[in-house]
Structure prediction request, 365 residues.
Amino acid sequence: MSRLAAYIVTAPGLEQVTAAEMARLDMKVVDLGVGGLTASLTWSQLMLAHLHLRTATRLLIRIGRFEASGFGDLQDGLRDIPFHEWLPKRCALNISVSASASRLNHTGAIEERVRAVVRRAYDPAYEYEGGVHTLHVRMSRNICTVSLDATGDPLYQRGWRTESGPAPIRETLAAALLQWSGASVYKGVLTDPCCGAGTIMIEAAQMARRMPAGRHRSFAFQNWMPVDPAQWAKLLAASDADVRVPLKKKYVASDIKGDMIDKARANAERAGVLDDITFEVADAIKTLDAASGGKGLAVVTNPPYGERLSAANQRSLYLALGRAERLAVIAPASSLPSFKREFDDTLATSNGGLSVRFAKVAFSG
Prediction:
């Protein structure tokens, strides 16, 4: 197990963004697919990926792959997997099964066989009492792939956002917008006039200070049998030592709702970047209009859309946002003309199941 066959799950459309992020971490991507990419990682890289990857959703580690045209083949292949070398005894286990274009397509029956084989790998007292570890079993064209979820809770659950509002943007999506647009390396002041819970500016501040994305939480792989806790502790210490000093109000986060600013400020404090961000209760349209029609403003935002805003208010807001000198935004494709800007580039992805696009102008990235 010197190298691990990893599958990195992403939101559809963000595969190249995550691949670029992995390259910056000196992790080589083997192949890109829809909604994910494969990579060959060392144990140290697996740990570093969980600490530093900001745009991925989770990492799966393949522990078995074999042909299975019937249940006999399935059971034989499963018995060859050394589950006891990966999972601690008496751990709780969830099993997730998917099947397509295969003779074995009854997911419930597949799960029964998997659970029975795993049980035999342990002593008779082995019990399943909850979801501490998750085993993914995928049948496709009569090939069975068995993977362990290394992550646990999705990576967008950083551990600091306990305060939220309506339709919050996931941390992974916020980070992807910042990286894809080039705003993450912009030297000037960044502004989010529709900040909500503050996610975009918090992600930007943490990136600028080299703060590990996964520092405030734990991961499933930490309880795997091969993992050395001392190695994990050493990587944590090295990551902490690399953190830069606060950038003192390089970021501005505002929202028309005072309670959202209170939540955003609390989130920023938990994330360790309260001193980096200026928080303001302000109307986005008035703020943008007051700034010489947007001249000199660099805006990165997830503005309200759909049922969160009337059509008239949305048009006014988007028109004001469109006057920013530099703009990176996430919005439905049908709404992009409302900004009255010729965007340099767009990228299709999804936000909470809704099809949206990243769009940018005047940022280089």
